[in-house]
Amino acid sequence: MTEIAVGVSNAGAASERAVRWAAEHAGARGARLRLVHVVDRAIEATGDAELLLAAQTGARDSLEAARVTADSAAPGIEIVTDLQQGRAEEVFERISKSVELLVVATDWHGGRRPSRRGVHSLRIAAASHAPVAVIPDVDLTARNGVVVGVDGSPEGARALEFAVHEAERIGEPLIAVHAWDIAVIAGGEYGYGVAMVGTDELSQAAEELLDEALESIVSTHPNVEIVRRVITGDPVTALADEAVDAKMLIVGSHGRGPLARFLLGSVSHGVLSHLEAPTVVVR
Fold first, then answer.
1. Across the 283 residues of the chain, what is the mean pLDDT of every consecutive 10-residue run?
2. Is the dihedral angle over the CA atoms 84, 87, 93, 97 positive or is it negative?
């Protein structure tokens, strides 16, 4: 059986939303849901047995509360609990090797463009072998659409495939966004190269790239409404702005490498730092 894992914490509303989101996806996919709580190894390192016992007791209570939440969100799904000790990034990296999707909550507590944010979700997303969904504490009731970043790369193609299945599953339009920034066109940052190609030609090339990426999607998913967006500007800003009213944002990320524990691609890192909707990073 396939499995979806979700991090459980004492972070309140964001953690609860992450559990509900993961449970609903597990139910839709016929997957088992794994609730994971990590007790930080620093607690054990103190040598304080009472502190460790209290942390473990609190973790079990959190897991039981999460089980109740998950069962109410998706009655009948198989749920297992998993109490771990260690560094969260290392634990979730290991778990990500055997799950279909990893879900974590962010510590965002509101604000249009929050300037302060914890780094755990970024590090977990960077190190994961599976797609990672980062869930903010936002109400999705009045939102519509699944936004996906399209850039013509293999990672972008995998993100697009993931997104169209999500859009089809929940009956929402697929909003395909291709953003291009003249400042990052080859040579543009040095003041040459762009002058040889007009912006009209660049815009047309961007339209063609998006059309080509969507060609097979249109034919294989005829019932999915597709909205095309070609935007001149910073891709992170473009995707974050589109995600403000969306139910979900999907982006691709670079393959894992020696720096995977610390780095995502600039766009995936950017949208997780400006989290506007549940955001899935697909490798």
1. 92 88 96 96 85 92 97 98 94 97 78 51 90 94 97 93 96 95 52 53 88 94 96 93 97 61 70 93 92
2. negative
Q: What are the start-end ranges of the H helices in 178-279?
A: 199-220, 235-243, 266-273
Main-chain dihedrals φ then ψ at residue 168, nearest 5 degrees? -65, -40
What's 142-283's CATH class? Answer: alpha beta
Global pTM value: 0.88
CATH number assigned to the domain covering 1-137: 3.40.50.12370
Q: Return the closest-CA partner of residue 105 out of 36, 32, 175.
A: 36
Cβ contacts of 131 within 8 Å, gap of 6 or more: 100, 101, 102, 162, 280, 281, 282, 283
Long-range contacts of 27-31 (CB under 8 A, 24+ apart): 27/73, 27/74, 27/76, 27/77, 28/169, 29/2, 29/4, 29/100, 30/1, 30/2, 31/1, 31/2, 31/3, 31/4, 31/77, 31/100, 31/101
Q: How many CB atoms lie within 10 A of CB 277?
A: 26
Token pair in block for residue 72: 């109410």
Give backbone dihedrals phi and psi of 120, rounded to 5 degrees, phi first.
-60, -45
Q: Tell me where in the chain the CATH 3.40.50.12370 domain(s) lie.
A: 1-137, 142-283
